[in-house]
Structures are given as C-alpha cells and as structure tokens.
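User: Please predict the structure of the protein below. I'd like the answer in structure-token form so I can feed it into my own downstream comparison script.

Assistant: Understood. Taking the following sequence of 286 residues as input:
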Amino acid sequence: MVRLDLGSVVLRRMTLDDIESVKALIKEGCEGTENRLVLHLLTRPLALFMLAVLSSILRCIVHSFVLALVIPVFLAVIYLKLTLPRSTGILGAHRRYWDYVGSTYQAEKDSELVNPYSRMARPVGGKAKPQPQEKAKRRKKGEKDKAKEKEKHDLEDLEDRARVAGEVWVADSDGEVIGCLSREPANRPGVTRVCRLAVQSWYRREGVGGLLVQCLAHREKERRGSRRVYAHVPFPSRVGEAFFRKLGYRLQGEVADGEEVEDNDYEQPQRGWLGYPITKVFVKDM
C-alpha cells in the first residue's frame, strides 16, 4: 500500500491513451470475483437439486460415484465461466462489452471533477493546473492528432456511439491512472447508474474509490439534475457492501427509521444462472 495525497489526484475523463490502462484495472479488479460468483450460483438450492439429479442418473451409466459427482459440477462450472460477463461484480454493467472508444468522445473538452481535497480546487468548468506529465502530453499533441487521423473514425458514427457508450472517469496521480469509474448512458431522467469501479491494488483503502464515486455523483447532480444514484455490488462481496454503506448508500428495499419505500425505488438486479440475482442494488438519494 502506498500513502497517497488525495489533493494531488486529478479526476478527469478517460482519453484514448488511457484505454489500455483502464482495461488493465478492470481485469485486475475482476480477479476472484468470477470464481466467487460461480460458487454462489452453484450453491443455490435449485442448482444443488439439479446437480444431485444429474449425478444420480450418471451413477447408473458410468458406475462410478466419483465420476458421477464430478462430471455435472465440472460441466456447470465451464458453462458459467463461458456465460458470466467478466465485468460482473465491478458494480455490474448491463453490457458485457464496453465501447471504450465511444466513451472518449470529446473527453478533452470536458471539465475535471472537483476534488474537495485539492488546495487548488476549482469550480466545474475550470482549467486544471498543468502537471509535468500534462505538459509532456501537450508536446506530443501533434503526434496524437496524426495518429487519430490515421484511425479515420467517422465523426457521425462516433457521436452515435458516444450517446450509448456512457462515460469513463479516471483518477490520475502524476500521470498514472490509479482508479476508474464508469457512468452508464442516461436512459432515465434524474437517475445515474455507476459501474466498473476499480482501483489499482497499491492504492486501495486510500480513499480513491470513494472520491471517484462521490465527485461523479456531485457532478451528475449539478449538471444533469440527478436525484438518485444506483450501484450494483456482487452478491458475495461484503467489502463492496461495506464500501457503499460507508458512503451513505442503502440496500434497495431497506427502510430507514419511520420512512416508507418509494414506489419508484426499484432497479432490476443482474441475474445469472436459473434466474438467481448475482448483484445487490445500492441506492442513494441526493
């Protein structure tokens, strides 16, 4: 673990140069999550019953108790590995594939998130204080522009992709991407859905994840008038549940003292094999 000064962290939109770093963060954050979800689904009552029935049938065919027990479990694990989205659990996204290029559309023109820890905190829309790494990036701007021209992305096509791609925000520390958080496309007025939260292992428990979630929620409230934020946490993840409760989120359906659950307080959780939910929905009103 590395001691990190949160005031030095820049919260900005992901650019084309950040895509590989963000993918690496997502991959690192998914480690272990998929196996826990597979175990969670295999231990559901209906799944255990189906495995027991298949084992009984195979017992009469293969005449081996061990093989009859192992084969159904092995096939079920392979099936779940192939069908479960690898991104599930990183505040589960609705889609298996994220359009990273579409998410970078006009990222350079967007303002940074306001970092409340920064001594040089700027209002939304302000310009960032140039960092040494940013100056180096500016010097290479001509080379990047040429590379972008070679890619020849059709502008209209990219605009269409951007409408359904959502946004990806990164935490930048001295030019290094140490965390990321995605906002799914705004399909419902007044509602924001965040997903794919990941922080580099060296910087976990330093407040980076909470900073990303809170600052993005604040921006959505100021810019889009969002009144509610939804986040999905994988079923076996107690760390994720504790993380969001610490930020003031509540499990969907929970009732505060003397308060009733609102009729529109509903977000469909992700479901896996046999229709069992594989995420818990957390919600926060702003």
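That's the full token string. The mean pLDDT is 78.
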